[in-house]
Structure formats: C-alpha cells, structure tokens
Amino acid sequence: MKLRAYTLLELLVSVAIIAILAGLLMPVVIGAKRKAKESSTLNNLKQIGTAVQMYRESYDDQLPERLSFLFPSYVSDAAVFRSPLDPKDGHYPFTGRMEGDTWIKSGVSFTWVPEWSNAIEWGWWNPWPKRGQGKWLGLTPISECHWFWATKFNEFDSDDQRGNAKGRAVILTLDGSLIYQPAKIPMEQFDPR
C-alpha cells in the first residue's frame, strides 16, 4: 500500500484558506462579544431601575442618596453596578455623579444623575433628600451609561470630546425606561419629549 503525502503547495493553500476564513470570522466573533456585553449592560441598568422602584415604594417615593444605597437590600449582586463594557470595571474616584469604588469596593460603572450638581442646577432634581418627582416625572434621568461609546470616564465630562463621540449613551429614567441618546449630544440638551 502506497501512502500519498501532501505537497508543500497543498499545505500552503490549506493554511491560506484557514487564515482567510479566520479573518472573515474574527469581526463576527468580536461583534458578537461586544453585543453580549451591551446586552449585559442594559440588563444591569434595568435591574437598577427595578431596584430604584422598590426603594421608592419602601421610602415614600424618595430616591436613594446614591446608587450604592441599593446594595445589598435591593440589589444583592454588586456586579449589577458594573458594565462589562467599562474598561476600569467601575474603579473610579468619587465625583458626586460617579461614585466609583467609594462605597462598593467592587466598583460602580454608572452615573447617578440626581446627585449631579448640574442636574440640580438645571432643575431636573432637587438636592437630596427631598429630590421630588423630577422635571419630567417618570422620564427624568436617574442614571446614564456611557460605555456604549466612551473608553474613559473623563471623556464624557468634556463637551469638546463628547462632540466627537460616536455611538450612543443609554439613559435610565425614573420609571425604569431606557432612552438612547446620540453620544455627541451634551447631557444638558436631554429632553425626553
């Protein structure tokens, strides 16, 4: 019985075909991985929205002082406060709007709009503890996720850099809705109507 060996040319053609197929599939795999992270982020925001509703029912429509007040009574898993899209996994210094890992050591990736001094100045929210119902009632923003476009937290605090942003920001409202806003639109121009 005579064995047939592969020639060098056949081997190189096989390797080239595999490389081409891998090159074609790689963007699909990367895109699917990104979509899974986006889906997880949206799910986390929806869980936070539900937790805020439960907190409000417990405290006569009052909002918590910050997101971390929801842990562990209303959100038992601290991972809910982090976005898989966040490159620093929620580890930021406290800015008022972003609490980072100040109260939950595992970190918080999302902002807390009612604690944002600009949102209070613009009349969206009253200062804590009597925040009221918010300027747009159920559609008043309570949290914003920038990880659909930003790679660093400080990028979305600068209007110059935000104006060049691609993608969208996801805004969680008081009634638990998610509103998508083009990332290049400054937050002060937010209007759900």
Structural write-up:
- 32% of the residues lie in helices and 8% in strands.
- It has 193 residues and is of the alpha+beta class.
- It has one domain.
- It has a 3-stranded antiparallel beta sheet, with helices on one face.
- A hairpin with a 4-residue loop joins strand 2 and strand 3 (178-182).
- The chain is elongated.
- The N and C termini lie far apart (80 Å).
- 30% of the residues are buried.
Summary?
The chain is of the alpha+beta class and 193 residues long. The chain has one domain (8-189).
Which SSEs are present, and which pair or pack?
Blueprint: H1 8-58, H2 117-121, E1 141-145, H3 159-163, E2 168-173, E3 178-182
Antiparallel strand pairs: 1-2, 2-3
Oligomer: single chain
- Strands of the largest sheet, in order across it? 1-2-3
Domain count: 1
- Secondary structure: helix percent: 25-40%
The biggest beta sheet reads: 3 strands, antiparallel
H/E series: HHEHEE
Number of helices: 3
Distance between the termini: 80 Å
Count of strand segments: 3
Shape: elongated
Which structural class do the helices and strands define?
alpha+beta
- As a whole number of angstroms, the C-alpha radius of gyration is 22 Å
| Mean pLDDT over the full residue set | 88
Any low-confidence stretches, pLDDT <50, length ≥5? 155-159
Strand proportion: 5-15%
